[in-house]
Amino acid sequence: MSNVLEGKVALVTGGSRGIGAAVALRLAREGADVALTYEQRADRAADVVEQIKAVGRRALAMPVDSADADAMSGAVDRVAGEFGRLDILVNNAGVFLVGPVEELGPAEFERTVAVNVRAPFVASKAAARHMRESGRIINIGSNIAERAVFPGFALYAMSKTALVGLTKGLGRELGGRGVTVNLVNPGPTDTDANPADGPNAEMITGFTALGRYAAPADIAAAVAFLAGEDGGYVTGATINVDGGFTI
């Protein structure tokens, strides 16, 4: 455990499980107080909170539907108010709605765009009001944005590709304030939604250069780098943590 982020406050959306939970815990171990949002499984969110507190950091879990723009903005303001500041925002929450394009209707489209695109925009807009010099906004995308090897991913890939533009645009806009904005694209990662021992895991692994899935901690390590001082001269960048999936 280090104190690289001592005195910092972070908000991780979708932080109750998988990559989000790993990011929340890594930032806490680096010294940050951490708030997180979740939509379901309050028990898992509570468990992450307890783990954060166990390393001596303040923690807060908030039930938020990321598709609700007012709730998302309100969560950011609440963190800044209760913790006294906001230094790091990790836009991790997302939905994964896939299928043949003919079968994806307006409801799937609206939900995907609301959670995967609008929510990061809304949260970043709210965070920018509170961030000081050395603020960090880190978006979590997907390797699918750069290499869609399976059919049925058009909607999801579109939504994650939008984060490239958001990252670059905000990076330019907020750079003068000393706030960096970056994008991390995970590749196949061992989570509940895509387990490394799942039915398609062997085929998915075959697309990587390293021949294995990532652990959520691998993604969290990249986020921690960007959140800390060592990542202070990186902005508007996309970092693929995908085991060579997009080579």
From TrEMBL:
The lineage of its organism: Bacteria, Bacillati, Actinomycetota, Actinomycetes, Micromonosporales. Keywords: Oxidoreductase. Residues 8-207 form the Ketoreductase domain. One of its GO terms (molecular function) is oxidoreductase activity. The keyword Oxidoreductase applies. SMART domains: PKS_KR (SM00822). Signal peptide: none annotated. It holds the Pfam family adh_short_C2. The keyword Magnesium does not apply. Belongs to the short-chain dehydrogenases/reductases (SDR) family. InterPro entries: KR_dom, NAD(P)-bd_dom_sf, Sc_DH/Rdtase_CS, SDR_fam. It comes from Micromonospora globispora. This is Oxidoreductase.
